[in-house]
Amino acid sequence: MLPNMFPLTSGQFGALPVMPIQAMTQQATRHARRVYVGGLPATSNEQSVATFFSHVMSAIGGNTAGPGDAVVNVYINYEKKFAFVEMRSVEEASNAMALDGIIFEGAPCKVRRPSDYNPSLAATLGPSQPNPNLNLAAVGLSPGSAGGLEGPDRIFVGGLPYYFTEAQIRELLESFGALRGFDLVKDRETGNSKGYAFCVYQDVSVTDIACAALNGIKMGDKTLTVRRANQGTTQPKPEQESVLLHAQQQIALQRFMLQPGALATKVLCLTQVVEVDELSNDEDYQDILEDMRTECGKFGPLVNVVIPRPSPDGEHAPGVGKVFLEYGDVESASKARQSLNGRKFGGNQVVAVFYPENKFYEGDYDG
């Protein structure tokens, strides 16, 4: 580790000699003064990282500890392409968090808190959020332009099974809207998921809806914990209830895709494409059936279209409100899902998921 340390001398960056009492203070605050920088290009070294981050901190007006350079130390892990960059002060480290996504030597870098960061302790040492008046435009950034993962609308997503991929988790979260930022936390040595993530929605009004709909849902062998990262559980407002109900219906279907071994099949299940009252009328039903055959047949050989209808006596009828598409091969079904999932239809957003072939052939449409 020692050869990779880069202690900056006072002649280089204006650092002052450290007295014993100052050394003790620095040690106590180091967790809050360091930032993790990931995705470094192979050409980077301690000197270039220190010079670059000192320059951009000055350019955005992030230096608060007086004249001189904000960076006092850099440690690089060349194999993993990340660095710990130590700032002079807690406030400057918090300002550096606004640099997430900064382009360094042609590569976009992740800027995060280190794993030993203690939020509750750090809160007693100085500001934990970047100054909102930083001039990020000076370095080609805008608030939330990259990770966008700071602030009161940041969501913590815990209890994720380790086999979930980033794409699967994003797809689940995007049931509620586009994400401004997303970060699946991974072990820095192995690259494996640690089972939790953070996200922020572009439309922050859906934050509480997403938390309420996702929190407590069972995924595989785990139960999700979803809440605002800096708050306890919040309840949706009354006017959000209908949106919440719709979201929960979507989540129930999305779960199919997130189960272990939930591979692509030849059968797709669509929701949010038909209204139940339209299915009772024979003429309307035939029109819908033909429309589905025509539109969905564009993606490959469509073997069968099944649209369950309501029972005349009012009894529960399996699968009402869903449309099942059986294709001749998995490739065609995959093309259809890619095109149809998320498409707007009659003001609703279509949800398309692969459906187990054995359930479909058995006439089990309630899955």
UniProtKB/TrEMBL annotation:
The keyword Nucleus applies. One of its GO terms (biological process) is mRNA processing. SMART domains: RRM (SM00360), RRM_1 (SM00361). It comes from the Eukaryota. One of its GO terms (cellular component) is nucleus. Gene3D superfamilies: 3.30.70.330. One of its GO terms (molecular function) is RNA binding. It is found in: Nucleus. Residues 33-116, 153-231, 272-358 form the RRM domain. Its main location: nucleus. The keyword RNA-binding applies. PROSITE patterns: RRM (PS50102). Keywords: mRNA processing, mRNA splicing, Nucleus, Repeat, RNA-binding. Belongs to the splicing factor SR family. Necessary for the splicing of pre-mRNA. Binds to the U -enriched regions of plant introns. PANTHER family: RNA-BINDING PROTEIN (PTHR23139). NCBIfam families: U2AF_lg. This is Splicing factor U2af large subunit. It comes from Solanum bulbocastanum (Wild potato).
